[in-house]
Amino acid sequence: MPDDFLDFNADDLNDFDAFCTKATQKIQSLLPKEIDERKRKLFELIFATNGELSVKELSEKVYWSARQINQYFNKQFGLSLKAYCNILRFQASLSHIKEGQLFPQLNYYDQSYFIKEIKRLSGASPKELFKNENDRFLQFLVDDTG
Q: What are the φ and ψ backbone dihedral angles of 96, each rounded to 5 degrees?
């Protein structure tokens, strides 16, 4: 990174409180003044449904074209909306797998597709994840507090 990254210099590191204040001000200055309501609604729907809605359904609900949404996702996150939703759906499936429900719960096309997606994203089948003796993988990824 350049020496003046985000207008910081070596002297800024001498006072932690001043550094935090300056960093906060810099970050706030880079944030948009208003958030596009379509984006807010899109993320609300994605998270409320654990990524189960199709791109077409999401597009229709937020009145934003699927092409524009995918351009936004590719620019901001480096992946498509569908890929993002697949990751969220996979994560939501982990709690079901941890409970021994080794069949699709979240709008997967069929059992075969469910197994293929879980294996693609985790490297193991649902059955292998459930049998994981020390359960570290599922304990790390499943949030039991929510």
A: -65, -40
- List, as one string, the DSSP characters of 84-134: HHHHHHHHHHHHHHHTT--S--SS-S-HHHHHHHHHHHHSS-HHHHHH-TT
Name the band, by pLDDT with cuts 50, 70 and 90, for residue 146.
very low
d(CA 19, CA 75): 30
Q: Enumerate the domain spans of the chain.
A: 37-81, 84-141
Query: pLDDT tens, 49-78?
Result: 988 899 999 999 999 999 999 999 999 889
CB 79 within 8 A of CB 55: no
Distance CA 94, CA 105 (A): 10
